[in-house]
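Students often ask why we bother encoding 3D structure as a string. The short answer is that it lets us treat folding as translation between two languages. Here is a chain of 248 residues written in the first language.
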Amino acid sequence: MEALKFEAPAVISQDIQPEELSAVLASKRAGERLRFLYEQLGDRLVASTSFGLQAAVMLHLIHEHAPKIPVVFIDTGFLFPETYQYAEELTSKLNLDLRIYQPTVSAARMQALWGNLWETSQADADRYGLITKIEPMNRALREIGGDVWLSGLRRSQSSTRVDRPFVEQQKRTVKAYPILDWADAQVDLYFHQNDLPRHPLAEQGYVTMGDWHSTRPAAKDDAESSRFAGEKYECGLHLDSNTPDFQI
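And here it is in the second language, the structure alphabet:
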């Protein structure tokens, strides 16, 4: 199997104090957080989206409060057709500065050479995450030149996120979460107030969204059981910085 080469993002955020910045953001509303971050950090910011079930909220907030922030979409090659369609709809509606990044190995080539990596062993599943998600995001940060990564993670989404601060350092990249403290009800209200379109699979029992082979409708709104056969929730992009395979 071919070896992956990881290069560090161009800038290291040594001057940002995550704990101090996290405390500042905690006292602000989501839109104010985005405006403040853009005023302070400008083109150091890069946002990411999976065009999942709740992605429209974060993307609309960016559109309203910091529209110049580039938005990275990692196309693994294994997303649901409906996700690709939703991405086109939201990108057009919100006039996003969308940057699409894909693995250096196509989905067809990956399966032809190595089979379905996500189902053979944990080592292969981890390899799959490195190839399809972590390496493309690493490349995006490096090429765009950003070192502060904005994500729509929320504490209420899973047990792995309940203790997240608003800002944290993960290896060479600072990560900030503008809607970290939003509850599901607040997300639903924002959708309604801003007339945002829903992901096409939202009505089919999906409560979270990822690759077609590792996401399924949830029983009783249990999001954690709907990803990777209930064995884990995180795809690899949002692992704790102490995790050995965290590369970003």
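Translate back mentally: The longest strand covers residues 45-49. Keep this in mind for the problem set.
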